[in-house]
Amino acid sequence: KMLDDSLEPGWLSEEVKTGTTIIAIEFDGGVVLGSDSRVSAGETVVNRVMNKLSLLHDKIYCALSGSAADAQTIAEMVNYQLDVHSIEVGEDPQVRSAATLVKNISYKYKEELSAHLIVAGWDKRGGGQVYVTLNGLLSRQPFAVGGSGSSYVYGFVDAEYRKAMSKEDCQQFVVNTLSLAMSRDGSSGGVAYLVTIDEKGAEEKCILGNELPTFYDQ
Amino acid sequence: MSSIGTGYDLSASTFSPDGRVFQVEYAMKAVENSSTAIGIRCKDGVVFGVEKLVLSKLYEQGSNKRIFNVDRHVGMAVAGLLADARSLSEVAREEASNFRSNYGHNIPLKHLSERVAMYVHAYTLYSAVRPFGCSFILGSYDQDDGPQLYMVDPSGISYGYWGCAIGKAKQAAKTEIEKLQVRILLEPSLRQGKILLNCLICVCYCYQQMKDMTCRELVKEVAKIIYIVHDEVKDKSFELELSWVGEVTNGKHELVPKDVREEAEKYAKDSLEEEDDSDEDNM
Q1: Dist. CA A116–CA B39, nearest whole Å
Q2: Of B102, B108, B110, the CB nearest to A101
Q3: Which residues pair with B141 in a beta bridge?
Q4: Are A66 and A18 in contact (CB under 8 A)?
């Protein structure tokens, strides 16, 4: 790492990344998505309260990570495409459709883009579903983590995940994971955003820094 | 019923004074000249039957198919100009394929029929092209949506159906299909004219709706309808093309297996003979 001799702050020159921890998990009847809120440009935090859980449709959200501009643009494009698609077919889009649209963009422009979106939502055919679209692949998983902070919590999620968790268990699982990642990853922090999606709709929630669970802390 | 356009019928871009586009109507006449195709929806699937007239004994059996596969789960039965129909089946296949590529799942049948209908309609707008001279019936089966049936005609509209028929005998076929809706099964004792003890005649009416039939039962009925509407006098021999898609095929559209087809044809021929026999009795 080079010594910073420059008199300019980092945010003037560094690419804006959503350093990030993002997570999504399925339960019977829906999904829970969670993210932190830090946006960094090098060592500068340019936004400490950004909501990285982006709406793709009424009951389909995606979690953004990687380059902020790339991720937001993909989400906006897919939001538009899903709007048109749902009107054409005359019903709510499937989560798989949303994930495929994201995947198609991520794969086609994989050399130019640097973003990873986790797509999660509820539809009447498949219930709650979580899809991973890293690097242009498409894979459905019971839960997924992403972003720079995810590396610190793979062990935790692998150990703590149980099948058939209830909605409240899932929400607690997500909050715990985010809290641990945010405390260890320099590029993640701020507040935790939660979105719970089920048949009735999507419910957004924000948990402030001082309300997050605490673990081993010197 | 033929009305002469007299100058307003030369191109699809011209309306007649009474608001008709004659070219489209002429295209529909082309469909009416072709042999019959029917599609019927039942409880757990869709069955297609086509009366394929054999114009020459030199034709290979099974050639010039009139039922196409559009994607794994959709079948398409056509009537009218076969070349136009083949071209449209390619259009339908592309639509289904692009949809799957973009959205990651099977195209819903309503959407597919609307997209192909839109394409057919486009050819009714310009003088540089002629409308497609074929109608077709699309059918599919899906775990969540159940069986679906749509028909598209040369004007470019698509309709959803329980049962529909296209081609020269479509009126007769429609009558037969409507009869299927309410079918009365008389108790065997009554059919034989036996009077039960106590002089009470027990009559058991069983209404079996088309919607409650399974594909296996419906295949036989479809074969029977085609045999009924086939005109032995005007047209010579014909080949019966049968296909189905439903729970029995796990949602995959395919031509019915040889043994099922033979059983259905046997049932159809036997039923026709029975009706001939009962006619003779009345004399």
Answers
A1: 47
A2: B102
A3: B147
A4: yes
Q: Which residue of B has its CA nearest to A88?
A: B111
The total number of residues written for chain A in this structure: 218
pTM of this structure = 0.86
Q: Which residues pair with A140 in a beta bridge?
A: A131
CB-based contacts of A115, cutoff 8 Å, min separation 6: A64, A65, A66, A67, A70, A71, A74, A106
What angle, rounded to 10 degrees, do the helices at B109-122 and B82-103 form? 130
Give the C-alpha separation, B125 to B103, whole Å: 30
From chain A, pick out residues whose CB is under 8 angstroms from the CB of B113. none
Helix ranges (H only) for A42-141 are: 68-89, 95-108
Alpha-carbon distances, residue A172 vs A142, A145, B88 (angstroms): 16, 15, 54
> In degrees rounded to 5, what are phi and psi of residue B249?
-110, 15
Residues of A contacting chain B (CB within 8 angstroms): 85, 88-90, 93-94, 96-97, 99-101, 103-104, 124-125, 138
* pLDDT tens-place string over residues A138-158: 999 999 999 999 999 999 999
State whether ipTM is beyond 0.90.
Answer: no
Task: Tell me, yes or no, if A20 is annotated catalytic.
Answer: yes
Give CA–CA dist A132/A135, Å, rounded.
9
